[in-house]
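ingest -> fold -> write
write: protein_1
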Amino acid sequence: MIRIVLAGGFLAKYPEGGGLWTGFVQYPIGLRALGHDAWWLELLDASGDAGLDRQRIEAFFARMTEHGLGDRCALLLVPKAGGIPTLDAAEPYGLGRPAIRELAESADLLWNFACALRPPLLNMFRHRVLVDGDPGHLHMSALTVDLAIHEHHAFLTVGTKLHDPDCAVPTLDLQWQRFVPVVHLPRWAAAPDPGPDAPFTSVTHWLWEELWLEGRVLSVSKRAAYLRCLDLPRRTGRPFELAANIHPDDRTGDRELLQQHGWRLVDPYHVAGSPATYRDYLHRSRGELGCVKPIHRELRTGWLSDRSAGYLASGRPVVFEDTGIGDRLPTGVGLVLFRELDEAVAAVNEIDRDWGRHSRAARELAEEFLDARRCLPAMLDASATRGRVSPAP
């Protein structure tokens, strides 16, 4: 048994993100199921509204308690004044400052998700591992922003093609250990067939962001990704539905554009605002249409989303835009990749022709490759690997 602290800075400020919560709490739940002493440390930036902060903190601990983690977590409210967060300046919840310091100093390992902890908080831990869930985005951001990446000792990424010759993600002179998103299978039942009229769905943010790499513009926009598949409902003659945060008063015309092409739109905070409703939403789906941020396609990151992992574990086939993940996982049945619209159309039609076979294959893929009972020990082993690349002589 090891004592491991997992650190993040995104759960408390986003209580309506049922998918986000589901993806991350599987890690401490899975580690505890393996017999490890797993804790979650959350950072929350003060909003300037004490009432809102209190509401978020209460919601955070209530949800962690629902997942059996209420006595295995702590939160630090970071002052709005800015500056470098320190333990003395932050307001602790769940545990007092001495207990948080003792937890950090006694921990065998820190998994720091997306650089949530920075020095000096980061340096309270003796063995620090960066866990990257957004390959390319994090790496390119680190070229211009000091994320304290090199203060870690080992580096894990869900970019399963990092260091491959055809992957263009800057590795920052570090050795990255690659992993796939995990699913805690006891929380994912293979749900019954919802019927052929059930839509292919996905849950997504609707963003326009861009990053630059050596004079090249790379989109991190899910909007751009899904608009490439705008004609899928018409081409396949079946329903597609997006739980996307497009405001009803949005003035871009995107809502109307999607609806004119046959897409259904639902409010993600209504259908997937908690882990339970999120899981139910996936179960009511025929499968997932996973359109990825263009950066994953263009840099060949080998990324697979934790959302897609949940669909697969539910026995829901996934039609997924090709990021290179086929070099790591079996594809063609259950998980079907596409590059262009014609391939997406063919994949959807094939799944509808033999949904049962694809459903069984989806669940089997999750059991064989994504099961937390197998993946988490491998991640722990990889965490012991020192990740700095020695400079050339």
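write: protein_2
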Amino acid sequence: NYTQKNHNSLIKLSIMKLFKALLIFWLSATAAAASAQRAEDSLAITDGPWKVLIDENGILCKKLQTHVFDTLQRISVVEVDPSLYYPLLVQDTLIEKTSQMGVKNNGVAAINGGYFKTKTTQAEAADLIKINGKYPRQSHTAGGTGALGIDSLGLLHFAYVPSIDPEWFDRFPSVLVAGPMLIENGRTIVGNSSRDRHPRSCIGVKKDGTVVLLTVDGRKEKAAGMSFGELAYVARLLGLEQAVNLDGGGSSTLWTKSRNLVNVPSDKVLIFRSERPVANGIVIRRR
């Protein structure tokens, strides 16, 4: 009986070892495949056929149509020299198009801002917004985890809301809460809890202070949109050290003075793509 028990134990041990070996092999193969896909995605972004639309006077505007994350994607980017330009947070009493905000505020570029109350013509932010020390209409219902502050010199600062002191919001004349926070101090902090793909907008800075406005088109056959994790991955590849997600979906709009709309908004009027009026935006102005 003792010998039989030992024999059975050895068989069970051998089966467990075999199962463990197969599991390790499967995990290794899966990780290798994921790494290969990631490497492929990285090259699609960094070495892709970017089309440069503007490259002068401290402004770079470029677009990319590529196959990444097993989907077709369309990415639009504006980069500006912070020594020549500064960001301005804007919100009027009524909702308006991002392009209108750019023109009205004498901007060279603009991107849509944070979440806002819909089904009304009143401009009402859905989270904290402060502009030059004043607080426009807002409801504080969104609970964003990412914040950007604009100091008196027109420089951008970013913070992951759950981990900062409330006094952080008092340091800057202008503040916008949106989110989620994508990248903090060069480290991706957004989780991959939401894999839903939509049009996306984000703003961030590179290590040298270059301000980057980024949109991803979506809800189209040739532009699937991205999850938050995928957006953060692309932002990292483009060199962003700090980045926060802005309102997305039909709100995602990137505009420049010389090229008008750079991306293709997802909203439609009949068969035509249409820019959605939003509550607030970020306008880039010449110093």
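write: annotation protein_2
The first strand starts at residue 51 and ends at 56.
The two ends are 90 Å apart (CA to CA).
pipeline exit 0
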